[in-house]
Amino acid sequence: MSKALRDAREYEETTETKMKTKMRPAFHLSARVGWMNDPNGFSFYNGEYHMFYQYHPYDAHWGPMHWGHAVSRDLLHWQNRPAALAPDMDYDRDGCFSGSALSLPDGRHLLMYTGVVQCSLPDGSYKDMQRQCIAVGDGTDYVKYEQNPVLDGQDLPAGCSKSDFRDPKIWKEKDGTYYCVVGNRPADGSGQILLFSSQDGFKWKYDKILAANNHRFGKMWECPDFFKLDGKWVLLTSPQDMLPQGLEYHNGNGTLCLIGTCDETTWDFTEESDQAIDYGIDFYAPQTVLSPDGRRIMIGWMQNWDTSGVHPKNEPWFGQMSLPRELSIENGRLIQKPVWELYDLRRNEIKYENVEFTDAIRLDGIEGRRIDMEINIRPRDKESIYRKFAVRFAQDEQYHTAVSFRPYESVIKIDRKFSGSRRAVIHQRRSRVNSKNGSLKLRLVLDRHSAEIFVNDGEHVLTAVVSTRQEAQGISFFADGWVSMDVVKYELVM
Ligand code: FRU
Asked: What is the pTM of this model?
């Protein structure tokens, strides 16, 4: 084991014992120590789910990238394993960037990641060289492949960037062929996803451009994932530098889901529709795994690059993953639902039916910061649809975060401007949702520092980190006009 990896493992072990775990998210995986970004190597191996992540153990801010590691049997109770990769070789000395994992037929666990080396240019500036590398291990210890890198600039056709060439997502087809998709930039500075294949998972060759951005959705496309779902093929990617298109995308680093068909002999991908993956503030770089029972499960980084730098220097940890979400396609849209394992954490049901109200109300027992709550609303009178409905949570006399819905526009909004943030960063997002005659179904999952809002059984999801002090446990409801509401709330207990 290299000194860099041994140091990281020692550091995380000794630092962790000094940290208070009480304030951590309970069932969302968070950085063991220091900084976490993208999910990496999300896989099922030797009877457990493995989640690796972009990791800088020494600081709660981004730095030389390692891979952190945790395992789980139910995707909710996570156990840390020692750091898996450190930037310790000539070909990855400036970072082990994002990548993926799978099981090899001989029982070993293969990781494929991007090795980064910064080269200095004559004008004194630096440029990344990014190439794809492999490490193989047993679920705890990983050894980098002696023939790394397995894909580098020389494998790329003319015009493909050698410095934006990252985030391999690997999978194996039924005929035994391995494939991977990698994010890249063509000469026009837009984004594209490249497809590579391999017979053994070690020796790779370039196949084709699977999908091209052509300046439609942001610029560089990061962290691709490509899989079959409900008879379609789905390409997930996280574009940088996006511009909003109505309420569909938002500025900055966003998420994109392209649904289409794919000829599995020529790998011609024909796009049929596009949508954002998440419509909230904090969701990026998601990765999926196929569970042993055939579910396609996705987890994203529950953060946003534009705001992730705005937190105190001395925090002991920073960064958490989203809930694991089961994906499906209905009516050409990507549907996301919390995995069924979350039901097992539900305790202490509090239920109200047909609560008719206008103005603001609270309901006995409806409160908490680690809860799963389902809300169904409709107008009290069919002839007169209310103008606005809102649920406020993480609330005390001073603070709250709100989800509101205006039926005439059919727009839902998450707003955390009163959550206690003292910075001028983005605090709101809107999304157009489906609603007939003012009825709407919401599911709100809170886990101390976050809120995930599933609209109409997962047709739209809005995710946001909420850093309000934990004493703010209140929940209240507001209606402009008369609303009839059913609410059921559970505590989520580990
Ligand atoms: C996406 C990303 C990846 C890269 C990693 C570096 O969030 O920029 O493209 O591999 O983060 O930490």
From this structure: 0.98
